[in-house]
Amino acid sequence: MFRKERFARMDTFPLCSLCQMQFTLKGPAPYLLPCLHAVCETCVTSAAGGVISCTCQRKVNLTDTTLQKDAIREKEVFYLTVKHRPTVLLCTHEDDGNQAMCWCQDCAEFLCEYCQNTHSSFKATKMHSVHTLLEMEPSQIDGHPFCSIHKFYPLDRFDKDCKTLLCDRCMREDHASHDVEDLTVIASASKQQIEHHSQAMSLLQTRQQSQIERIGKDIEVTETTCNTLKKTIRQTFDSLRDQLDQKEKECISDIAGRSKQIKSNLQDLQGRFNDNQMRGSGASDYIRKTLMYASKSDMVALDKVLRDETKSCIDSVPPNYETPILALNMNKLDDLKDKISTIDNISKLGSASEDGACRGHGAVHAGDTNRNQDRREVACLQKDVQQVTKNANSGDTVKSDGAPVTYHLLETTAMDQAPVILQCIHVQYDYSAFNLDYVNVTKEEDLVNRRPDTRLPRQGRLKTYRGTCSTNPLPRTGYPQYWEMIARLSLKRTLRGTRSVLETGICRRDVLDKIELVGGQNHSYSLTISQCPTHGGICRNIWKKRKHVLHLPVALGDIQGSTTLHYGVVYDDSRKKIAFVDVNENKVMVTLDNVDSSQPLWPMFGVYNPDDVNVKMTLVVGHGIYMTQEKKLMITHALQAEQPHSP
């Protein structure tokens, strides 16, 4: 039992990343690599060719990089030795070989029982901070460092020019003209930065874990779907056994092969996320230890290397992936009884963003003599089967780009046109882009017209536009895409002038941050809600590029009351159309043609005027959209419209 406990305690000691030897209190010193792993002094001095290859596959050229001693792991080893191997600690005060019983933080020495009594009786040392080994905490390891030039003068200053610690005499003598700051101030600033690194890594770890879990679920869903589809194939082909035996085997084999391919691709991607997760875990662990063990000087010394590794971890995250879809046509199986000899398979390996089906195809007749025409028609039929395979069941939810997408079938009024598949995509606010000076995205994922209470990094954020955009541009899927937003307005007083309240629409990313409002900018298509002097209230304004297209009043409640606005946006990349829908009034406000999609378009969202009104904008996307038959018909009419609607 004692041996098991002893080995368990030894397992807690950190290891050299190269030789895997444990660091010990009196062994080779640990050195810190840029990846935040540690190597022992022996491995550093014996590195072949001056190059160290870490276990994380990163190489360090010692001729270009100067390694610093890993003060954090040295203190970790010190603390672990005190807690788990106290019997190896001897008195350092008199070097008498006695067992150490306590630690003097001011003298930085181990004391035996005799020396402790003597230490406590001397006037010069009786007020020192002395801690028993059993009660020691990480914060009690560091003492008060003194200047090596001026003894008994503490190092409590930091020279920003020389990047070194100073005592009071050093500051007044050799460094009198330098930019010197109190060490406590410098260390406090470094600690804040390191805490930001910790928050960034924590957020990264959460996102990584979410991606890993999502991939795992996709693998399970793929396996379940594969089994279900194989069962469906068997049941359908039972009634056509004589004619369809061979096709049944081919379809089952195809489904199994495509399923294997999907799972293989997802497992490879999962492995990449796992590798990044492990790397991030190591960095997060080291940052946590830094916050636990680091002294002020350590904070200053480690600020840059921790910042670089944090940025490196974030930048190395694999991009969002597009989830493949394994599906089987259900509605066309009856038709396939007559056409089975011309269709190779009814299964499809694809993704939710794949181009849609061939539209306007003719029927395939058994008596056709023109083989080329037959092949073209069969190809169109196969694509149509694949489209219906993915989307035909109204309200079916699959995943695209790692996010759920809900499909709805829109019936067209023309007899010769195929049904239209509507995608309710998963639009999200870009939390890392919103303008910190004017808006905030709350924990409930609402966009509000007030500044955030917490301090957030400003790099990469919008500076002028008072809002944010989506996390990704609109995918070019060939299908119409639809999302909604609900804005809750609470008026504080009568609105003044022509102030805006909110804005939504789409635009190119390069015009988003030019002014406070995107409406009126080139390459933009937006709905703006603003105060209107003409109508004496709030109005809806539709903008196409730089032109004002529509001006409609909005009926609001009492000035001091609350009002809810509910709008939908339909974007059809294949038809080059965008339509704005008033969900409350159940009508299309306007349809805009000739949308320029030569470059990616981004959904954008703005909220304004905090002095007069509180605005909370909520996105309604994917499966959360309540899709009625009336709404489907309204969207169908919007997509078929050739000119902007009149109010």
Question: Roughly what percent helix?
Answer: 25-40%
Q: What's the CATH architecture name of the domain at 440-640?
A: Sandwich
- How widely separated are the two ends? 84 Å
Major β-sheet, in short?
10 strands, mixed
Into which percentage range does the β-strand content fall? 15-25%
Contiguous uncertain segments of 5+ residues:
1-8, 351-396
> Which topology of the domain at 440-640 does CATH recognise?
Jelly Rolls
CATH class identity of the domain at 440-640: Mainly Beta
* Shape, principal axes of CA atoms: globular
Question: Which key features would you list for this structure?
Answer:
647 residues, 32% helix, disordered N terminus, six-stranded antiparallel β-sheet, alpha+beta, Jelly Rolls, 11 helices, 29 strands, Herpes Virus-1
At a glance:
The chain is an alpha+beta fold. The chain has helices at residues 2-10, 41-45, 71-84, 113-121, 168-172, 183-237, 241-293, 296-315, 333-339, 371-391, 629-640; strands at 30-32, 38-40, 51-53, 59-61, 68-69, 102-104, 109-111, 130-132, 157-159, 164-166, 180-182, 324-328, 347-351, 397-400, 403-410, 420-424, 440-441, 446-448, 467-469, 480-491, 500-508, 524-532, 537-544, 547-553, 562-572, 577-582, 587-592, 601-607, 613-620.
Description:
The protein is α+β, with helices and mostly antiparallel strands and about 650 residues long. The protein contains eleven helices and 29 strands. It has helices spanning about 1-10, 40-45, 70-85, 115-120, 170, 185-235, 240-295, 295-315, 335-340, 370-390, 630-640, and strands spanning about 30, 40, 50-55, 60, 70, 100-105, 110, 130, 155-160, 165, 180, 325-330, 345-350, 395-400, 405-410, 420-425, 440, 445-450, 465-470, 480-490, 500-510, 525-530, 535-545, 545-555, 560-570, 575-580, 585-590, 600-605, 615-620. The strands form seven sheets. Strands 14, 15, 16, 17, 18, 20, 25, 26, 27 and 29 form a ten-stranded mixed sheet that branches. It has a six-stranded antiparallel sheet with strand order 19-28-21-22-23-24, with no helix packed on it. The longest helix has about 55 residues, at about 185-235.
